[in-house]
Amino acid sequence: MVTAIIVAAGKGRRMQSGTRKQYITIAGRPVLGHTLKKFDACDDIDSIYLVVAQEDFDYCREKVLLPTNLHKSTHLVAGGKQRQNSVFNGLEALEQKRGLVVVHDGVRPLIEPQQISGCIAEAQQSGACILGIRAFDTIKRTDDAGTIEATLNRECLWLAQTPQVFHYKILHRAHRKAIDDGFAGTDDALLVERIGYRVKIITGSKTNLKITTAEDLAIAEALLEDGSG
Fold it and tell me: Where are the alpha helices (DSSP H) in the chain?
């Protein structure tokens, strides 16, 4: 059993748009629709749980799910205050609380089915795997005033992406521990690392970008329109 939790409950304030970024139309469909299509096309995914704001349920059904015409079983789940809360809501909502869980950002529409499958295959062996790309620029560490303190060795540095895949029990335990500790992490892998579990990282793609700004949106649209994503 492999279940996908697609998180798309964010407000998208940095986009500075009247429409939440996951619902902005690019290359003929909403950003979120492109993401869902990629997961629907992945043979390793059994079902999809889409986490969105409660007030967006009707809009999402009409404007995203219906026109996207998904073949896999898809369920709507109400999001939480922060992304971490939304993922936990997704975990709690799963009908089958077992197997592997694939967590992905709804605003990463350029993910490819084979990348999802690759992450799943590794997680089946290791229990926890994420996609990422090696740092390709020189990385500087600064103090609060913006003065460089050190130049880091980029050979061992990665930029984390999604999807991130875990055995259900591992991820649920990590989230529960974070709740008990009042801890907020930047991604699910960090929560799993906190409970002492080793997380594998495999190479993703530079094009698997997370749409955050108008510039990201323009790049994603160009790649989707020319068939590169």
Answer: 31-40, 57-60, 66-68, 83-93, 113-126, 168-181, 188-194, 214-225
- How does pLDDT run across 202-213, given as a tens digit for each residue? 999 999 999 999
Strands (E), 24-69: 25-26, 29-30, 47-52
Distance, in Å, from the CA atom of 158 to the CA atom of 133, rounded to the nearest integer, reads 5
CB 43 within 8 A of CB 88: no
Helices (DSSP H) in 95-167: which residue ranges?
A: 113-126
Structure tokens at 139: 């990385």
Q: Where are the domains of the chain?
A: 2-225
Q: Are 115 and 208 in contact (CB under 8 A)?
A: yes
**Nearest-CA neighbor of 51 among 85, 76, 84?**
76
Residue 36 phi, psi (nearest 5) = -60, -40
The band of 225, judged by pLDDT with boundaries at 50, 70 and 90, is confident
Identify the residue whose tokens are 């967590």.
103
Grouping H, G, I as helix, E, B as strand and the rest as coil, residue 93 is: helix
Which tokens belong to 182?
Answer: 């009042």
Mean pLDDT of 171-195: 97
CA distances from 45 to 42, 96, 162, 198 (A): 6, 13, 15, 23
- Which CATH class for the 2-225 domain? alpha beta
User: How many C-beta neighbours within 10 Å does residue 40 have?
Assistant: 17
d(CA 183, CA 155): 29
Three-state secondary-structure class, residue 2: strand
